Amino acid sequence: MTSQVLLIEDNEQNRYLTTFLLERNGYSVRVAHDGLSGIRSATESPPDVILLDIQLPTMDGYAVARSLRANAALDRTPIVAVTSYAMVGDREKCLEAGCSGYIEKPIDPETFVGQVEAIADDHRSGFDGGPA
Ligand code: MN
Questions:
Q1: How far, in Å, from the CA of 127 to the mean position of ligand 1?
Q2: With 70 as the cut, is the pLDDT of residue 130 above it?
């Protein structure tokens, strides 16, 4: 079964590159351009992985992550923060908001998908049933 990724990202170039890399590795990708539409999409049909930009208009990624984590139906869904913020403490803020892990922009096309999978596997390993 193809793994479904929900990509919440407002920057078109980032959406293009990320989608390209994931699809090349066999993932199915749907995109949301802002936090609210991302939350709606995740709620309507929980994806296997959520990739979440932190710097988003209106509602930042931390608020989006907290909202997603308030939905028990998404407990098993890894949320991978992808952000250009590189300040000390941002990783902790991502994790506190409910993200499973953190990848810094600019992403490395050679390692990006592997980083996503490592964070997703680590998140899922925290549940008794293992990979869903
Ligand atoms: Mn952004």
A1: 30
A2: no
Amino acid code (one letter) for 114: G
Domains and their CATH numbers in the chain: 4-127 (3.40.50.2300)
Query: What average pLDDT does the segment 49-53 reach?
Result: 98
Strands 4-8 and 49-53: parallel
Task: Give Cα separations from 1 to 4, 5, 28, 125 (angstroms).
Answer: 9, 13, 10, 19
Q: Checking phi first, is residue 130 left (phi over 0); if not, alpha (psi -120 to 50) or beta?
A: left
Contact 105, 61 (CB under 8 A): no
Q: What pTM was estimated for this model as a whole? A: 0.93
Tell me which residues have their CB within 5 A of the ion that is ligand 1: 10-11, 53, 55
